Amino acid sequence: MAALGWLTPRRRSATARSVLAGEASAEAARKTSQELEEFAQTAPGVPVEVPDFPVLGDDKAAAFFDLDNTVMQGAAIFHFGRGLHKRKFFETRDLARFAWQQAWFRLAGVEDPEHMQEARDSALSIVKGHRVAELMSIGEEIYDEYMAERIWPGTRALAEAHLDAGQKVWLVTAAPVEIATVIARRLGLTGALGTVAESVNGVYTGKLVGEPLHGPAKAEAVRALAAAEGLDLSRCAAYSDSHNDIPMLSLVGHPYAINPDSKLRRHARDLEWRLRDYRTGRKAAKVGIPAAAGVGAVAGGTVAAIALHRRRR
Quick check: is 68 catalytic? Predict the structure, then answer.
């Protein structure tokens, strides 16, 4: 059922840290959106089916796109980790530890708070002491090296349909907001909501603001941004491949399941949400390697990095 914007009650799963993470991400996104507008790009047209939404000239509407396996094949943090490993941001022993932490999560399938906190702390230690500007610059290089060719043309065309209708388009991802902002700028989007790592005087402290922008935190970020931008969520759209984003999709009046996992596909069919699938061959689980849910930081790339390391020996 379509939500009524700010009248929509929060789901019980939204914690105080989720709200803090969402509000911090919304604030960071608004600070960068003006800059991104100056770099807006247009991409070659792609002949895909476009929805009967968006409505031309509706300035109370916007679109929110999940990133991993929705806009981009695989996980952004996976590719970012590859780039950091290439630039020797972590040692082999760190790779082994981070890879084990992610493997444990993927096999166990549950988020043990103590274990997840350890994984987050380990990931954040990689960027601690580095300047935000340095990571942004590296993110530009990594986008060209690993990400540009992995953008789904169909999803990009959907985003451009909203832009052409005069609406703002935001990425919403658990990836660091700096990397998400780089991707949004390269795609000509309005801005990005992402995990916010604390920084003081432009230097990372090794702490998060709130928690990773995952699950309920994404919904809180969208809610906070919509309130700040004066949007009517019942007239907005959201796009995702993952059942973890059902809280975000449920906020808006136009939810779309893009390249959906099995749980989201069932949920979307039950609620008669629109579906789009731009994959060929094997399904979602076979496309890329998703980051561990909830880590939302550099650790997501370690499995790829260690695999590359072994292949090159």
Answer: yes
